Amino acid sequence: MMNTPSVNLDSRLSLAFDMYDPCELAADIGTDHAHLPAALLQRGRCQRMILTDISEGALKNARAEILRCRLSDRAELRLGDGLSPLREECGMISVMGMGGRTIRDILLSGRDRLRGASLILSAHTDWHLIRAAVRDIGYHLDREEPCQAAGRYYLVLRARPGEAPLTEREIRLGGPLFRSRSPMLLPFLRRRRDVLCAQLKGLKSAQTPDTGLIRRVEGDIRFYEEQINTAGGISHDSTGHLSPD
């Protein structure tokens, strides 16, 4: 009997895998090389998956991975923009590897195709736009987990159906993020604080400083400092695994 080829996931995709609920049918939007859905299928987390992408070249890459892993009978590939290829009710939908504006637009324009699916979301930029979009489609975030892959920090967010209030600060900086038990939380917060400190320096050196924005950034830096002090007192187990739900 031939061995089934294994799927290797980096830390970001591994985190997304861990946050996926077991389900009968799921969808991966913007699937590209299909590493995450191949792993979800191969390891039994999902029984069937729909893989979509707007690019024919990306779908060709995805098809090659699905064939390599001998998963063709459980994966369906569809060409299309955002959530438009989805017709079925899925238990989970992942949208990853794009900018925050793109993911926001996908959620807002395709909200009618979500049909109550839980969401796994991860963007390179503009996380606040995703948080606001999650609120606007009547969902709420129950987890925000930081990770680092290829020398860059990422957040992986999980959203569930059902509204929950969010303050403007929570949209900007995070909500469930600060309840994370991840060993990556402290370095992530330090990095975000440093980014704000650099922004503050630029604001103060502007020819016409925006005093309101300066006060807001100063407040956000103080908030991050408080969270850093809190996170610094959290002990993590030696495995580095996230705490269970």
Describe this structure in words.
This protein is of the alpha/beta class. It has two domains: 11-177, Vaccinia Virus protein VP39 (Rossmann fold, 3-Layer(aba) Sandwich), CATH 3.40.50; 185-231. The protein contains eight helices and seven strands; from the N terminus they run H-E-H-E-H-E-E-H-E-H-E-E-H-H-H. It has helices at 11-19, 35-42, 56-68, 100-109, 127-136, 168-173, 185-204, 211-231, and strands at 23-29, 46-53, 75-79, 92-98, 118-123, 139-149, 152-161. A seven-stranded mixed β-sheet has the order 3-2-1-4-5-7-6, with helices on both faces. A hairpin with a 2-residue loop joins strand 6 and strand 7. Residues 235-245 have low confidence and may be disordered.
Tally of separate domains:
2
Question: What fraction of residues sit in β-strands?
Answer: 15-25%
Structural class: alpha/beta
Please state the CA-atom Rg, rounded to the nearest Å.
19 Å
CATH topology of the largest domain: Rossmann fold
> Mean pLDDT, rounded to whole units?
92
Whole-Å distance between the termini?
Answer: 38 Å
Percent helix: 25-40%
CATH class of the largest domain: Alpha Beta
User: Would you count the extended β strands for me?
Assistant: 7
CATH architectural grouping of the largest domain = 3-Layer(aba) Sandwich
Largest sheet: 7 strands, mixed
Notable features of this structure?
Rossmann fold; seven-stranded mixed beta sheet; 2 domains; 245 residues; alpha/beta; 8 helices; disordered C terminus
